[in-house]
Amino acid sequence: MATPTDHREARRIATEAGELLVRMRDAHPDPVSRRQALKDAGDAGSQVFIAAQLRDCFPEDAVLSEEAVDTDVRLSADRVWIIDPVDGTREFGEPPRDDWAVHVALWERGKELTAGAVALPAMGLTLGTDDAPMVPAAVDGPPRIVVSRTRPPAQAERVRAALDGQLLPMGSAGAKAMAVVRGVADAYVHAGGQYEWDSAAPAVVALAAGLHVSRLDGNPLRYNRADPYLPDLIICRPELAQRALDALAAA
């Protein structure tokens, strides 16, 4: 099982990568014509930093990253770090947006996800399994369901209708998942394509906080598969889970 060092280093690495990204964004010219250069630099710089930190701290562990070439080495490893150096590159490249994140998660054979952290660098906030966050009490009013700001799935509308809720567009997967953890939203519904690095860190932090986390069909999320495509998920307050899953199943 994950050690205190695993939990602590997940938070530190995510936080420090986020601080690096904030400095890069602050120093970069903002004209729209230069934003692609900022996004490219952020992806590359954060990848180099996180990879070096994991190599120094956990030299025997394998790594799966959005920004690195995948190999089959991880498939026989007992421990694999699943990372997204910049989750929400689009939002990162649009200062002053804050709905982007850094993901660092640990998968262990026979145990699935065991440690992780999601940094929200533009908010100066990191949520991690070393100090499991406490989800605030539900607020009065319709449930708030965070969805992609560019391509909200039809499944989210079904959940919204079943819960008599409202949709809340937001950027990166990590930002949306942490909105539920932070009590800014009540559910996050995604369909239409993601990879393991998009959801691993948000999932393990949400689980540590006591939220419901699953595929849209209610099955658990599984990681370190040969094909890292993991296209859908729901993260929500436990009291909303059955109604949401029933609505999805009925569709």
TrEMBL record:
Mg(2+) binds at E66, D84, D87, D198. GO terms for biological process: 3'-phosphoadenosine 5'-phosphosulfate metabolic process; sulfate assimilation. CDD domains: CysQ. Its cofactor is Mg(2+). GO terms for molecular function: 3'(2'),5'-bisphosphate nucleotidase activity; metal ion binding. Pfam families: Inositol_P (PF00459). Keywords: Magnesium, Metal-binding. PANTHER family: 3'(2'),5'-BISPHOSPHATE NUCLEOTIDASE 1 (PTHR43028:SF5). This is Histidinol-phosphatase. It comes from Euzebya pacifica.
